[in-house]
Amino acid sequence: MSKIDGFNCPPRHYEILKGLLNGRFLTHDEVLYNIVSDNIIFYKEFFEKSYKVDLEKTAEYIYILSEYSNETFSRNFLLLLSVIAWEFNIEGKNLYEEFDKKHTINEIKEKVKNSSYKNSCRNIDIDKIFREARNRNIIKYIEENVSFKFTSAINMFLNTAKHIAEVDINKE
Amino acid sequence: MIKPERILNYIVTNFEEIRTIYSLEKEYGYITEEQLIAISLKIDTLLDYSIVEEMINETFKMRDIWYALIEGLLDDYSLDMPEQIAKYHSSLSDLYQKLKSSSIKNESIKYAESLAKEVTKFESQLKRNIRKLIEETRDIKANTNKLNYIEKMKRASSITKVYLEPLNIIMKRDADSMLVIIQKVQEEANLRLYNLDDDNMQRIFTKLHNTFSGVEKEIYNENRLLINEVAPLLERIRMESEILAGMNKFLSNPDSYELPMLSSRTNTVFYSTKAKWDAQDIWDGYYDTLEDVIINDSEDISQQWIYREDKYLKQLIENLPIENFYQWVFATLEQELDIVESKPFLQLSKLVFNKNIEVNYTSQRMDIRLEDLTLDAPVVIIERKKHE
Lengths: 172, 388
Hints:
heterodimer, A: alpha+beta, three-stranded antiparallel β-sheet, 8 helices, elongated, B: mainly alpha, two-stranded antiparallel sheet, 14 helices, 4 strands, rod-shaped
């Protein structure tokens, strides 16, 4: 094997690496997104060869899928999101518009409490899951722990729901 | 001839009945004699006023002008675009072919006028239908009919399939699409215009050209409306419904679906400028965990023995001469500490190297018993330093 002289990588590599491995979404409005996007071949290979994880890129966000992960966050967050979406629908609201608006954590708690699906979120600590969602860049606090907006990373969860709609569990 | 006011007046007076005739016509495409009798309007009057006409198979039909009037008054347009457009497609291309091959003046005028009339009808039909389509789409969007999400999805996808897709196919630049026929008529009108010196004919073909070019512009405008407004709206409704359908399935059975596994906090601990993040992550993880915190009793620092050279040197000098240095070390420590261990003993023994004292080693040795160790130490005599 030939000797390798040095390691060349794009700027802010460490920040990118740490963020993505911690399960953070890079959204298209961030500089880091552009850096990864411009060097997508490098990063796909880098993550695959170094960590055996898949780097996924869409026009709106970049994130890492890891088959070794045993996180329960996606499940709990999708449950919470589904309950909220269902409530928006009952109120006759447009989902996309609602997901684009500012919300308060209390309003979300209230919705969950009054939902016929509230049992689905029985074991979910809403404050905690929103904090984790913030760390993963799925929401941005407008006022710390009080109000927030979803980032474009929310679309990963909406796409997952769409995918579930297409899956027939009886056939699987 | 019956006065037009009289006919209008009759329609106003009997509007409910006329409306019933319209509904029957709309539903079945014809009205039977029994149905007309049941309405309790005199069939003869209806025929006299030309509101209905008798067909050859003894059924009745509401005349087009009245049908269109009532439809317009009730704003009761149905989404019938694909069929309607297909109908105009064939009538317009038929008339165009006839115009193209006709060289007789009167015939040409007749075809040109029919074309202009037909295309105007097509235009208003198209505009009405597109307006209706936009309204329908907005209704679904705002869910004014309180449809549940499955119905909403069905409605949105049926509108897309039945109306939008055929319309787009008709509108696109195919060899014989509606747009192409409309452009061909304009070319034909242009061609005729330059080869004519008859003023009347020129006027007719100018009008034909202008009408068709106006319609073309309208079509582009309507098509833009469709592309800009209806298509994305329908697409969004369809997507939104899919998302809700998926969420509903997920909520009823959350453990039956494979979810994307996101990367999680890595356990590698490395301190860096980004350590704040790690700390935040860890802190968040424990934020709401209530646990008993056990704090061990810490040793009282004041009880710890600390070696201070100046203090002990002073003591040593005050006690000079000392016959047995290590014995003195032990005795000094014993005064201060209950138990004398090797660590403070060895520390204090360092005084032996101090340059301010005179050290004389003897050949005698003695055992010093410390708590954790027994030392075989020499007997050392310390005297005051002799000044040179």
